[in-house]
Design brief:
globular; 8 helices; 282 residues; single chain; mainly alpha; disordered N terminus
Length: 282
């Protein structure tokens, strides 16, 4: 779940309209959906030639598949239900890749004050603490401009070069290859092989992943990300509503208010989560 303000006065580029920024976010979600569907469908096409009943019983390395995905130890997951009923393989694979990419975008880009501060938690906390104090004592315009200037300064320091919208400071190539090596490759391998050796994505898929990372970075630097967080760890008492996977990111926006006043929160783009109910309805 990405949590961001859409007010024009908080934008890095103040000429952009909120509707345009919202559409950019929706485009990001669609890009993630298209990439994950391409990866999973290519795998399913090969199995469809041999098997008719395509369920998660065909996952070649179930332990590795489950290890890479969130879920309670004895509860439902993308692999099977709480009653140990197997899932449709096409849906499980698609949602698995989406969940991993969404989690990585939040953890690497949306959650830190700046992506380069991800490994420096004390510094990241201090920037967030300072920003939160400013929000309580100053106007939204002042806070937004302060964040934009800090973001740009950290960009310059982290890459030692001038920054503009065409010059992304995030090391896209390194992040994409790391995600492929540690998460996406092993997940694809768990579907196809008992051996946990990662499988490489196609050049098209790697290129699409880099485009998603760059788009997420550029989108995030335009906004106030005071409380971005991932919804996957939310505890739900009803097991039928346990969040199994996050299929798309949501966006919370707020109406402009006076300094010190609580903003009015709305959801222009709702987060899409996968629960046990979703599989029961198919």
């Amino acid at each position: 779940m990405a949590n961001a303000d859409l007010r024009v006065n908080l934008q890095h580029h103040e000429s952009l309209e909120p509707s345009q920024l919202l559409e950019e976010f929706r485009t990001l979600n669609r890009s993630i959906e298209h990439l994950c569907r391409d990866i999973s469908e290519r795998h399913i096409e090969r199995l469809g030639i041999i098997f008719k009943d395509l369920t998660t019983t065909l996952v070649r390395n179930p332990h590795e598949f489950c290890r890479l995905l969130p879920g309670v130890e004895k509860g439902p997951s993308l692999y099977w239900s709480a009653e140990r009923k197997f899932r449709p393989l096409k849906d499980a694979a698609d949602y698995a890749f989406r969940d991993i990419i969404n989690r990585e975008l939040v953890g690497r880009i949306f959650d830190p004050f700046h992506p380069s501060l991800r490994e420096f938690t004390a510094t990241d906390r201090e920037f967030k603490r300072t920003y939160e104090s400013m929000r309580k004592a100053s106007t939204q315009i002042s806070c937004g401009r302060w964040r934009a200037l800090c973001f740009q300064y950290i960009d310059v320091q982290s890459r030692n070069r001038a920054v503009d919208t065409d010059n992304v400071a995030l090391d896209i190539d390194t992040v994409a290859l790391d995600m492929e090596r540690v998460l996406l490759g092993p997940l694809l391998s768990s579907l196809q092989n008992r051996n946990p050796t990662p499988i490489s994505l196609s050049q098209f898929q790697i290129s699409a992943l880099k485009t998603i990372l760059a788009a997420a970075y550029e989108w995030n630097r335009k906004f106030d990300e005071r409380s971005m967080q991932y919804l996957g760890n939310k505890k739900v008492v009803d097991s039928s509503r346990q969040i199994i996977s996050v299929a798309s990111l949501g966006l919370e926006s707020s109406d402009a208010g006076k300094a010190g006043a609580q903003p009015n929160r709305v959801w222009p783009e709702k987060i899409r989560v996968i629960t046990e109910d979703c599989f029961e309805q198919t």
